[in-house]
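lol ok so funny story. i was supposed to be doing the assay writeup but got distracted and ended up predicting the structure for this chain instead. priorities right. anyway since i did it might as well share w the group, maybe its usefull for someone
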Amino acid sequence: MHQIARAAAVSLGTVSHVINGTATVREPLRHRVLAAVKSLGYEPNELSRGLRLNRTNIIGVIIPDITNPFFPGVVRGIEDVAYKDSYRLVLCNTDNDPNKEALCLGQLKSFLPAGILLIPAPDSTISANISGPPVVCVDRRPDGWKGDIVTVANRDGAYKAARHLIEMGHRQIGVISGPSHLTNAVERVRGFRQALDDAGISIGPEYIQEAQFDRNSGYTSTIRLLQLLPRPTAIFATNDLMAMGALLAIRDAKLVCPKDVSVISFDGLDVTELTDPAMTTVYQPGYQLGYSAARLLLERIDGSDAPAKEIELETELRVRHSVARVNTRTRRR
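and the output, tada:
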């Protein structure tokens, strides 16, 4: 900074005010400082600046599974908002481990982030780690969480999926749920069952298989469902990865989707247009989920003390080719 001050022929304090934005500087002086910064190739040390201001321009983003293709869209929505407002992201992956999540939270706080966006792990302890920078939860609600949160209409989306299967004549339906300690998984099963109840349809507990929101557990759960008598004429997988596992299991069982077993899913990943058959799925807006959460976080960073907000985004049923109308012969199997 001393070099910049000499090159611009200004005081060290003027340089500090321009770089750190701590006071208004007259335009001619500001332009001289900025020209000197550019000519000298100066890169500010954000951590040193953060120690002075007790806050950096970093936003921490904690996601549960970096290999799940749904989450990059969420992070992209966050990054677009952050970049526009001159914030930068630090990304952490918890592998759905609450202990790793707690470690990530502690480490992030040591970097003096402006705020944190968290997609909670199962059994998250975030409510016990509320002190520090503002936190917005995304996609899932941890137990006891009373702060800001942005989710999608999981129950309504699953209700739409069930209604579609019912309208196509399906009555013997299997469900592959996500982990029972994740709120979005629970809400999807509740919405689906509500639609069945409203239509006077009941399914036994063995027709609801709990899995792990991944393809392998979707495959295993489908194999179990296909062994039931009567065999389901349709399967609702509560995320697209499990639905892809279901398609593989149906194929390996020498059956055909949707002729023998229909499949409907939840997420709306781009890849579902490329599966064989193209997947009928409930689309949830991942990009908008991240975008809305980032906008809410920036409100808190800017000093908003409004009551905690709950934002719920709508879902959309996208009908393709993986669900067929059931026929009497299939239903009797």
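The CA atoms of residues 67 and 95 lie 9 Å apart. The longest helix spans residues 183-198.
back to the writeup now i swear
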